[in-house]
Design a protein that fits this description.
The chain has 5 helices and 7 strands. The protein is of the alpha+beta class and 245 residues long. It has 2 domains: 113 residues, no CATH class; 115 residues, Thrombin, subunit H (Beta Barrel), CATH 2.40.10. It has a 6-stranded antiparallel β-barrel. Helix 1 packs antiparallel against helix 4 and helix 3 runs antiparallel to helix 4. The longest helix is centred in the first third of the chain and has 31 residues.
Length: 245
């Protein structure tokens, strides 16, 4: 279950749905144009039918923000690339080439918007040993109450907080972390909330708020620390696997 009641997020999701309708419509138009120009009406009808079945599932993954959205997107990107190659190789139907190209550009814009911890956070559930997980232990301050959380993702001025405490979407909270030398404190807004299953913490997509008190420079320093920690944990994980082999 995912909560996207934040108005800003709802507006972004509406734009993403519009983009999906965009590359769907252009791809169907490309099928029609290619079928008419090559006089392959039966093939055109079959491609449209298969496309409709594909997009029915594809729209479902986007509506519920399933992670299988990326599998469908990658498959569609490969398919569009293949069609572009075929058009160029056969040196025919320049109009169809532009249709496929525009559909691919719209698809990549849609994927870029959704490639954020707010919509699709990265959580290393498969790694049960917390020493090697790609996350960071932080302290969470909400309504003057302190609780523990784990920062599981950090990208593009946004992150994902994994916590057993359910935080309301739209709430501003403070997070505190340190690297043993420097303390970091940030103000973030809860933009989304995912509940995977009972017994697991909720994943909260957050957006960092920058002002005079919470500078973007501190975020850049913290992001550098975050990347170094990920690299160090990856090396430890690899060393562990080698020692156990």
């Amino acid at each position: 279950m995912i909560d996207l009641s934040n108005l800003k997020i709802r507006q972004d999701i509406d734009r993403v749905h519009l983009l999906q309708w965009g590359h769907f419509s252009i791809l169907m138009l490309a099928f029609v144009a290619e079928g008419i120009l090559d006089f392959k009406i039966i093939t055109m009808c079959l491609r449209i039918l298969m496309g409709l079945l594909f997009y029915k599932l594809y729209f479902k993954t986007l509506a519920d923000l399933y992670y299988s959205f990326w599998t469908f997107s990658a498959g569609l990107a490969l398919y569009l690339s293949y069609n572009l190659y075929c058009v160029v190789a056969n040196q025919s139907n320049l109009q169809v080439f532009y249709l496929y190209l525009v559909a691919m550009i719209i698809l990549f814009v849609q994927m870029y918007i959704l490639l954020s911890p707010i919509y699709y956070p990265r959580v290393s559930w498969w790694e049960y040993d917390f020493r090697y997980r790609d996350d960071l232990k932080v302290k969470l301050y909400c309504d003057e109450l302190e609780s523990e959380a784990r920062l599981t993702d950090l990208r593009r001025g946004a992150g994902c907080l994994s916590a057993f405490k359910n935080l309301e979407v739209g709430t501003n909270v403070k997070i505190h972390a340190d690297n043993g030398i420097q303390n970091f404190t940030f103000l973030v807004e809860i933009m989304s909330r995912r509940q995977y299953s009972l017994g697991r913490p909720s994943s909260h997509g957050v957006k960092f708020i920058f002002n005079e008190e919470y500078s973007e420079k501190s975020y850049d320093e913290f992001y550098t620390f975050w990347k170094r920690e990920k690299i160090a944990k990856s090396k430890k994980r690899f060393t562990k696997k080698v020692d156990n082999a």
